[in-house]
Amino acid sequence: MLTGEDGMVEFFDTLEQTDWNQSMQRTLIHWLGIQDTYHVLDAGCGAGRFAAHLAQRSEWVTALDVSEKMVARTRRSATDFGLQNMSFAVGNLCQLPFPEASFDLVTCLDVLFMCEQPQKGLQELTRVLKPSGQLVVLNPSALMNPWSAQKLVDERKWKDFQRDSFLAWSTAAAKRRLYDAHDWAEMAHACGGELTDSLTLLEGLVAVYKFVRQDRPAEAPGDVVEENLSNTESFVEI
Asked: For residues 149 and 217, what is the distance between their CA atoms, to the nearest angstrom?
């Protein structure tokens, strides 16, 4: 049995191949509207399965993770898919090693909710967006907890690793503050961005938000401004 970081890499590689995770990835791929001219950053790429899907539809994908071994697994995933339009970087989400306005699309799946300072991460992700670019963030929603997750697992009759991995995700979520659309809109505004669209997945337990960069300076961390959230109520269920 693998332990430590090696075991974590194997866990995430298997997790990214579960039916429920792949279902989310397929929905996102269609929702993103990726163009073949896009330069994309997948921040917090994990084992790289989603980054590989992005690379099949865009001009270039940069996959970044804080773990060298996760990045190595992502590189292997790219080789397995026969992809030659990917680059790989080890780096911290809150201090990205890229110039300002580098990417047409930035994706960040299941990472920001784990950050001690999610607004700082959001600010960095917004910084590396081109002025016309989009940032898409996926996290557990404010409805995610072990009880709501158990209900979904029972309704869908998930077994074994499908079941255990989803319940483990809900347990991790329960240990963190989970933000709603209003919270994300306020953080985005303070980071020089705007929340423009959203969708929910898995009976509302997963929330996805789409942001664009605004041509105005970001505010100091912690400063928030009330926003009209009428444009954030576009929800899709899978």
From this structure: 39
Contacts of 208 (CB under 8 A, 6+ apart): 28, 31, 136, 137, 138, 198, 199, 200, 201
pTM over 0.85: yes
The residue-averaged pLDDT of 156-161 equals: 96
Q: Name the phi and psi angles at 182, rounded to 5.
A: -65, -45
Q: How many Å apart are CA 83 and CA 4, to the nearest integer?
A: 29
CA distances from 220 to 21, 103, 116, 202, 217 (A): 35, 23, 17, 35, 10
Proportion of the chain in helix, strand, coil states, percent, rounded to 5: 40, 25, 35
Residue 153 to residue 160: CA distance in whole angstroms: 11
State which amino acid sits at residue 151. Answer: K
Mean pLDDT of 164-191: 94
